[in-house]
Write a structure and sequence with these properties.
Layout: E1 2-6, H1 9-26, E2 31-34, H2 41-52, E3 62-65, E4 67-69, H3 80-92, E5 99-100, H4 109-122, E6 128-131, E7 153-156, H5 159-165, E8 178-181, H6 184-188, E9 193-197, H7 203-211, E10 229-234, H8 243-247
């Protein structure tokens, strides 16, 4: 595990963009697994800024998002399809045919989940998977108790997750109760993982994931098994880590993607 602890989220964004830029320089047609929520926003802003300066392009890349709410169409402002168009795909001019998300309004959601998994496998799987971590240790929408070998499927969202995400919805609209997500087994097949976390609210989840037992009750703990995982966190998210773990953190400039 490569652990990087930085002073703020702006530094996180620059280092995260460096890693993605190097991945694309090595393999321009990389398959990128993407995440949503507050954590990757600064990273996406940095990627867009580099694109506008001619330093970063997704022209040949293919993207697969981790998840989508069940019942929300791509035009709903709180859908992840809408989020990605606003924050990354639109500003970077990504061809919509190269950007993949689950269809949240599919008539047969379980069948859609299986088809989504099949589409991902058909392009050879994910080269670099971007991950956040939930307050309860979830990755994607794999809530506590998810099987560590799970595949894409329909999931029931926990009360913790729904409460955390309610801020993205109008006051008169509740967070959906279900979603389609890539499974933990699918995520772990990615050739490289980049896990981001920021803020003191995530400190306990980060500590449980990196130093606790590998258990379905903390889905993110499975990253301990991955042979090529970079964990990029700010100082606040690192506050619950043991001194031994903190001493293992590498200097940011020493990180290589190859």
């Amino acid at each position: 595990m490569d652990l990087i602890i930085v002073r703020n989220t702006e530094r996180m964004a620059r280092i995260g963009a460096d890693l993605i830029q190097r991945q694309l320089a090595t393999k321009p047609d990389s398959v990128l697994g993407l995440a949503t929520g507050a954590t990757p926003l600064n990273l996406y802003r940095e990627m867009v800024a580099r694109h506008r300066r001619g330093r970063l392009t997704l022209e040949r890349a293919i993207t697969f998002n981790l998840d989508e709410y069940l019942g929300l169409g791509p035009e709903h402002p709180a859908s992840y399809a809408s989020y990605m168009r606003r924050h990354l795909f639109g500003p970077m001019g990504l061809d919509p045919a190269r950007a993949h998300l689950p269809n949240g309004t599919a008539a047969a959601p379980e069948a859609e989940a299986k088809c989504y998994e099949a589409r991902l496998q058909a392009v050879g799987g994910i080269d670099l998977q971007l991950l956040g971590i939930g307050l309860n240790g979830h990755i994607g929408f794999n809530e506590p108790g998810s099987a560590l070998d799970s595949r894409a499927r329909v999931v029931c969202l926990s009360a913790t997750t729904r409460a955390a995400n309610q801020r993205y919805f109008p006051l008169d609209e509740s967070t959906p109760t279900h979603a389609i997500t890539l499974g933990i087994g699918t995520i772990m097949e990615a050739r490289r993982l980049l896990l981001l976390a920021s803020g003191s609210a995530k400190a306990a989840a980060v500590s449980d994931a990196l130093e606790g037992p590998i258990t379905p009750e903390v889905p993110a703990s499975v990253v301990q098994r991955h042979p090529r995982v970079t964990v990029l966190i700010d100082a606040e998210a690192a506050t619950a880590l043991s001194p031994i773990m903190r001493r293992q953190a590498r200097e940011p400039d020493a990180i290589a993607v190859s």
